Hints:
79% of the residues lie in helices and 0% in strands. Helix 1 (8-31) crosses helix 7, helix 4 runs antiparallel to helix 9 (246-255) and helix 5 (121-147) packs antiparallel against helix 6 (152-175). The chain has one domain (3-255). The protein is mostly helical. The chain has helices at 8-31, 36-39, 43-88, 94-116, 121-147, 152-175, 182-202, 211-232, 246-255. The chain starts with 7 loop residues before the first helix and ends with a helix. The chain has nine helices and no strands.
Amino acid sequence: MYYSMLGYGFIITIFVFMLATIYLGRFIALSSSVSIEDRKTTKVAENAIYGLTALLVALTFAGASVKFDSRRNLIISEVNAVETTYLRLGLLDDDKSEALRHEIRGYLKSRISIYDKLPNLSAVYDEVERSLGLQKKLWGSVANACKSTDKILACQMIIPLINNMFDIANTRVESTQIHPPEIIFILLFILAFISALFAGYNTASKTFLGSMHIVAYAAITAITIYIIIDMEYPRFGFVQVHSFDVVLDDLLKRIS
């Protein structure tokens, strides 16, 4: 569900549908024979819909915000894990240390390349497979280096770091698949449009439809929904976690 890739087009589409729904509600009210007094009896149902919409918006926004911050924290964790591992390799013999550090630099380049290739998902999947291959190669190289050295204490410090580095990298990849079920977003759209329909229905009791208020309501709703989805998929829209990847680039420069 990569609606955030549509950017302004997605916002405008929601905005237009919201406006159309509001005016549809007004048209239905004006076309019906229900009196203004009778319409007041629907307030309970309307308030329930408005409340449910607000609750769903709040929950989805909070969830998306938490996951957005979590993804940024994972980037920092990966930088720390790679840098610490790189430094600890200096505890081995110089020839083994330099060979392993060379492999880590290649692995880090692959990790950076994964996210640089977005939104080309096919290229991303290929790079992920390549990165996993480099993980296996690096793990094998570390295991062989530790077998052929008497620096057991150094290996006991390095191997857990290598494992942690791989775990964080895999967590970053898998975390991109953690999202609310699509039915939640569909329900969010439905409630937003029903709220707009009721809002338009209530304007029939007025002789003048305030365009500024209607446009503002539709625009704010559209932008809010977009931001929620954008934070759920922060590599495709305006809310970008990609800018935070600079810390990985900086690390590569430091160890190159």
